[in-house]
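Pipeline run #58 for the internal structure catalog. This entry was flagged by the ingest filter as a single-chain record with no existing model, so it goes straight to prediction. Upstream metadata was stripped on purpose; only the residue string is passed forward. Reviewer on rotation: M.T. Logging verbosity set to normal.
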Amino acid sequence: MNRNLIIGGTLSLIAVMAALVSFVWTPFDHASMNIPEKLQTPNLVNWFGTDHFGRDMFSMIMVGARTSIAVAFVAVGIGMGLGIPLGLWAAARKGAWIDELIMRANDLIFAFPSLVIAILITAIFGAGAVNAIIAIGIFNIPVFARVVRGAAMPLWEREFILAARVAGKNAARISVEHILPNVMNLLIVQATIQFSLGILAEAALSYVGLGAQPPTPSWGRMLADAQTLVSIAPHMALIPGFAIIITVLGLNLMGDGLRDHLNPRLRVART
């Protein structure tokens, strides 16, 4: 039994369930202000307390999970949707000009962290969740391209690929039918890692005002709102901070567990 996979999957499931349930139910309206009840510590009515506007923190955490997970999920989808084909193409044309072009373009993107890309995009199009998705997604493209290329290149020398070539299959068909299934395990693990990094990136962008905009709750902006009130209302910083930590920890443990489960050598070594 893979303990990391179970613990990580459970923590990740809690975050996903909170996000899904928030579509149909939250204890209070997350945008409803109640100034007389502001800065309440956790109690039987407001389980996580209230913020400086009297909004229910538990409701905001639930809706904030929806925001963080949605941004990270779509950004990873962008990275996989563009990065995987580019990586397969580069591996199939190893040493050719297209391989060099793809890899140098990846190096160029890596030279600009997602936060810098987000600032550039925001300066042009304005702040918002969509621009955060684009920024994080662009940064994910070279990650998946490099993973696919690195895993695919040795496969092109294997006997079953030579047999496919003899059978008359072209490079594109071989990449889809033979190479991609053999690197899918690595991609699944990498996707969970990038998912957790996407949540951290979204929180960082929201913290500096480049992510989801009010009144949409975001864990990162909740931390930004709490930074001047830590001494009198520490729960405002601790609760969204723990939400980020638990979710990212769960995804990382799940990724580690999936790596062991999908890799027969590691699975045998731990038994």
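catalog note: Residues 67-269 form a domain with the MetI-like fold fold (CATH 1.10.3720.10).
catalog note: The CA atoms of residues 72 and 199 lie 5 Å apart.
status: ready for reviewer M.T.
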